[in-house]
């Protein structure tokens, strides 16, 4: 796979070609990735996949007109053709008063922080198969598990490089190691499926395969024999693996693009106290070995840790350069690149800080409620904040988690849900978005 030095050289040559063909400004992003995965089912090899890709994307500006184009042909002739075509496309594009690349004074400067994103170890196919088998074996060994959808293990490596005509040059590599299992418990009309997985930058940070498998099996068996659930307002407790979606809705709503377009339920709410005062939500692009850690953003701006919510209030919007110019604010270093096209906006490693109560204490005073472990459907309106999703999980009766329940709906409005959030103390930091168990009072549950 391509190394960062070669990728930087390719980007520089492409920018030179763009300048020759009339571009006033330009940037180039080179990316490469390789991955290998092995899947097994019922102790038999199910699938072995190996993929490799390399691409370079060019974004050119002719005044305030821009165009983007990409290629996987790295020859000099292809670069000339690509640059010529991109400049012609830009010349025919409409003007965008907010378009442009970062001025030199805004750019991140080397040396960039070492965020420990790249593992030197690389498991081979035999090692991946052994881990996949161990993961599935542990899941199938749980009493009540009757079938398997398989276990898998994978490894990936990637390189990302950005070079701009205003003087930025930077790149970094990253790796990922993953384990997963999905199994079925029960028989006939009483079957339930569940899963477990984990992805980490370094192999040494993964839990043992047997732990992942056992978790998948235990979850599937716990769902057997679901009952009904009464309808009405009641406390809803979100397990961490689904509570992350609440933060995802928040991140979409504070995107500068959504704010500039007037399509966010948080528009005009910067000065409002929207959350409990003791609740903090943080964004940390510099977390060592983080799944979304990055030393600079997709436009070459520095990235910095920051609070997103503090003292009950939002601290501001997340922006790329275009959104910051539209809103008349300082860019926040949240530009994200994904191949060709203009940069989007993305948070990095986000977490909601742990509370002081245990999960048991969080539910101890709930007479009738529900613990949600799975969500389905997309019933969330980003403009109004109205929230309605299908769910499954477990009843909470007199402060205790009782039997499983399925096929019910939870509904509310994200503004009132945010104001009612209470966090437990069981935060674990292994996802891109991490939350402890969360409780939201006053939601409407539609069951039987």
From TrEMBL:
Gene Ontology annotations for the cellular component aspect, listed alphabetically: cytosol
GO terms, biological process: proteolysis
Domain Metalloprotease TldD/E N-terminal: 26-90
Coiled coil regions, renumbered to chain: none
Pfam families tied to this protein: PmbA_TldD_1st, PmbA_TldD_2nd, PmbA_TldD_3rd
Domain Metalloprotease TldD/E central: 121-224
Domain of life, per lineage: Bacteria
Residue ranges of domain Metalloprotease TldD/E C-terminal in the record: 231-447
Molecular function, one GO term: metallopeptidase activity
Similarity remark: Belongs to the peptidase U62 family.
The protein's name: TldD/PmbA family protein
Protein's organism: Allopontixanthobacter sediminis
């Amino acid at each position: 796979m391509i190394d960062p030095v070669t990728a930087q050289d390719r980007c520089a040559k492409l920018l030179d070609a763009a300048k020759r063909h009339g571009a006033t400004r330009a940037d180039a992003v080179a990316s490469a990735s390789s991955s290998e995965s092995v899947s097994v089912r019922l102790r038999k090899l199910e699938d072995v996949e190996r993929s490799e890709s390399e691409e370079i994307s060019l974004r050119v500006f002719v005044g305030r007109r821009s165009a983007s184009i990409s290629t996987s042909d790295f020859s000099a002739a292809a670069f000339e053709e690509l640059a010529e075509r991109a400049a012609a496309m830009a010349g025919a594009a409409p003007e965008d008063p907010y378009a442009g690349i970062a001025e030199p004074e805004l750019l991140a400067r080397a040396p960039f922080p070492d965020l420990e994103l790249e593992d030197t170890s690389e498991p081979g196919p035999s090692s991946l198969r052994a881990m996949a088998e161990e993961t599935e074996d542990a899941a199938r060994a749980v009493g009540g598990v009757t079938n398997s959808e398989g276990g898998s293990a994978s490894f990936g490596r990637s390189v990302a490089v950005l070079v701009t005509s205003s003087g930025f040059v930077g790149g970094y590599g990253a790796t990922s190691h993953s384990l997963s299992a999905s199994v079925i418990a029960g028989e006939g009309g009483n079957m339930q499926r569940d899963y477990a997985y984990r992805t980490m930058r370094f192999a040494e940070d993964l839990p043992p395969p047997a732990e992942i498998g056992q978790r998948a099996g235990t979850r599937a068996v716990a769902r057997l024999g679901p009952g009904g659930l009464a309808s009405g307002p009641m406390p809803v407790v979100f397990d961490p693996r689904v509570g992350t979606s609440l933060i995802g809705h928040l991140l979409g709503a504070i995107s500068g693009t959504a704010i500039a377009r007037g399509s966010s339920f948080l528009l005009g709410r910067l000065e409002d106290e929207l959350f409990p005062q003791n609740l903090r939500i943080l964004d940390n692009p510099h977390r060592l070995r983080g799944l979304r850690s990055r030393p600079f953003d997709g436009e070459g701006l520095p990235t910095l840790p920051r609070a997103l919510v503090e003292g009950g209030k939002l601290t501001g919007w997340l922006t790329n350069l275009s959104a910051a110019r539209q809103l008349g604010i300082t860019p926040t270093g949240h530009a994200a690149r994904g191949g060709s096209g203009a940069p989007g906006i993305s948070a990095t490693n986000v977490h909601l800080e742990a509370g002081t109560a245990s999960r048991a204490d969080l539910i101890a005073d709930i007479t009738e409620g529900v613990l949600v472990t799975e969500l389905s459907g997309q019933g969330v309106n980003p403009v109004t904040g109205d929230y309605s999703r299908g769910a499954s999980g477990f009843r909470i009766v007199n402060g205790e988690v009782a039997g499983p329940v399925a096929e019910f709906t939870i509904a509310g409005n994200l503004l009132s849900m945010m104001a009612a959030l209470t966090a437990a103390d069981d935060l674990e930091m292994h996802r891109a978005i991490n939350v402890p168990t969360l409780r939201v009072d006053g939601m409407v549950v539609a069951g039987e």
